[in-house]
Amino acid sequence: MSGELAWILVSAMLVNNFTLVLFLGLCPFMGVSARVATALRMGAANIFVLVITSMSVWFLNTFVLQSAPFLRLISFIVVIASLVQIVEMAVKKFSPALFRELGIFLPLITTNCAILGLAIFQTNRGYGFLEGLSFAVGAGLGLTLALVLMASIRERTELSDVPGLARGMGLVLILAGSLSLAFMGFAGLFST
Amino acid sequence: MEPGADVGSAEPAPDTAPAGSRRSTTPSQDLLRGFWRENPVLVQLLGLCPALAVTNTVANSIAMGLATFFVLVGSSLFVSTLKRLIPAEVRISAYILIIATFVTIADLALAAVVPDIHKALGAFIALIVVNCMILGRQEAFASKRPVGRALLDAAGTGAGFMVALLIMGTVREVLGSGSILGRPLFGPGYEPWIVMILPPGGFLTLGFVLLGFGWWRERRDAETPRVRRWPHGVTARRAA
Predict the structure, then answer these.
(1) Coil, strand or helix: which one is B28?
(2) Is residue A13 a part of any domain in this protein?
(3) Residues of the domain holding A61
(4) What ipTM does this complex have?
């Protein structure tokens, strides 16, 4: 059982990395990967929201959506939006310092496709509660890893001699392509 | 506009919505703006997830483009019609609900009509809900303008998205499988460039397409006469 959970975690983190292999959550990946410190904070916020999303999606799937499967998408997005709102209010009340740290990133997580993607994948694969949790943690760690790697590379390229044409998003995308190529190497990790 | 400045934001900054803030535009400008000058993928870098994830064949690109076009036009129609009834405080949630309804329709329709492609696109049909391009058009345009203009804007932006997806899909399928719409192009001697249909190919293709557009724009700017440039006008006025 625990071996299974570890497999799910490592698979979501490396082999099927949400950002670099499945193309989920690209907006924050391009938007906030300019500094390592912000990338780390964004990653932490993402892990947190992914975990609570996974728990509530399990609850919805088990107790509510059996009778009305066509409402799946609408109920997922409503639950995610309200959860993020509640978390934001709670953090603001109990830890204003952390709230300021996270800033605009927290509300923006609602429209991060990694969160809804996790909800949909978890449902399609029929994960239980613990499997869903380890999937969420793995996906969050994978997102953080990709963000931090990208931010470190971008900090380095800032001072290097890049042709004027390639400066900006073209360069970022090609860098992401090389990172993604590197992650393809993990595909051989589980050859079963 | 600085590319990527607005990427990832649920509430687009006012400066990304020139139509809402600047003086009025003509209907044809509303239609063409999203298609070319403010192309969502190639210029604004919005909606990148589907643009990279499902463009490994031309057929998938077309299906994704049509589905997104339908959702964008449908939700623009509803948002623009209901704009006086939606309270400002809950507008984002209301837009998301409207978008999610249309995505559910598109999802079920694709599953019924083209089950193979629906399977290939997988979760990305459902993920149209969180495509920042669609929410961006509702917030920046449809919620402020009359229904007809909102439909024109949605059609233009949706078509622009489709064209960007087609460019990506064509490049990736031709290079990665040596075929177009499943028909072989180069004969049996062609060794397919597999990486182009795998995830890294998506990033690399869009990166090089952006570089190509940047190069083209630089060439074009170099050719236009300098008289029309703003700094020249300033110096001329100062000299006068």
Answers:
(1) helix
(2) yes
(3) 2-184
(4) 0.83
